[in-house]
């Protein structure tokens, strides 16, 4: 383990993760490299790398939320979700094959996406507040990819790694937030035409809009808010699945439609 100042750990951690992503070579867990690496430290590492990407021309388009399922919180020993940033450089066009060689060990998740019509902030938001502020809901595929070797992560590691974000594919169908109840929609994930995961949106904090409300509350503690036009991914209600070896993935949420991608090549790091 490295003994150094907290600020030096932030800088070194951010550099290690950025290098791992750029070179597609995973790094050791930051929680193993640095003693007493805290969750606030992890968010500072995340923010440092996001600011660096924005300085190079990327644009923040929203946020993703993770650890919304109680089972996952228990696995990581936490009692609330976490979040990461979504950048315009992460958006992938479903009409184009997803090049897996650009990533380390990509996995796919299906989840609803909320696009906001107005800014949303505050500590006491309800499901109705979120729905009132939502322009439309759509089905999305999120591609996650850990820059930590073998996905050997604690919650601080995934937070520092921007919630293990990699790509997002946004469905074309735009559904009004009150067209029907979003609370308990059947959800499936298919790989090469075979259903490999099933779930219901009620597993996302009881209602996926609760995830958006949680995020707005978390950001309000830093005098930040969700902006109009932001895309928010509130979490998945199924497990993620590795994409290596598969040619296509399809996510379906009843009422929201489906989204399909094809893949090409294989992940940069083999044999995981």
Describe this protein's structure.
With 272 residues, this protein is an alpha+beta fold. The chain has a single domain, classed as Fumarylacetoacetase-like, C-terminal domain (Fumarylacetoacetate hydrolase, domain 2, Alpha-Beta Complex). Helix content is 26%, strand content 27%. It is built from seven helices and twelve strands. The protein has helices at 6-23, 30-33, 39-55, 70-76, 127-132, 155-160, 208-220; strands at residues 60-66, 82-87, 98-99, 107-116, 134-144, 165-170, 186-191, 194-200, 231-233, 241-242, 248-253, 257-264. Strands 1, 2, 4, 5, 6, 9 and 10 form a seven-stranded mixed β-sheet that branches. It has a five-stranded mixed β-sheet with strand order 3-12-11-7-8, with no helix packed on it. It is globular, with a radius of gyration of 18 Å.
């Amino acid at each position: 383990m490295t003994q150094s100042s907290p600020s030096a750990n932030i800088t070194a951690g951010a550099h290690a993760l950025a290098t791992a992503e750029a070179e597609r070579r995973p790094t050791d867990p930051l929680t193993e490299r640095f003693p007493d690496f805290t969750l606030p430290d992890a968010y500072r590492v995340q923010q440092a790398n996001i600011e660096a990407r924005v300085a190079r021309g990327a644009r923040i388009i929203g946020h993703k939320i993770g650890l919304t399922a109680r089972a996952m919180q228990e696995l990581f020993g936490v009692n609330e979700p976490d979040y990461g940033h979504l950048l315009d450089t992460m958006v992938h066009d479903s009409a184009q094959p997803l090049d897996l060689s650009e990533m380390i060990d990509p996995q796919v998740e299906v989840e609803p996406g909320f696009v906001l019509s107005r800014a949303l902030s505050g500590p006491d938001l309800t499901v109705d507040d979120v729905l009132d502020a939502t322009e439309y809901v759509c089905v999305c595929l999120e591609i996650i990819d850990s820059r930590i070797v073998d996905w050997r992560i604690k919650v601080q590691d995934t937070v520092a790694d921007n919630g293990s974000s990699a790509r997002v594919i946004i469905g074309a169908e735009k559904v009004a937030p009150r067209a029907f109840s979003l609370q308990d929609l059947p959800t499936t994930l298919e790989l090469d035409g075979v259903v490999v995961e099933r779930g219901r949106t009620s597993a996302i904090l009881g209602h996926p809009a609760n995830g958006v409300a949680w995020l707005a509350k978390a950001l309000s503690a830093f005098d930040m808010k969700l902006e109009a036009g932001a895309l928010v991914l509130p979490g998945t209600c199924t497990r993620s699945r590795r994409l290596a070896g598969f040619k296509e993935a399809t996510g379906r949420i009843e009422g929201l439609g489906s989204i399909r991608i094809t893949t090409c090549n294989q992940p940069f790091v083999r044999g995981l």
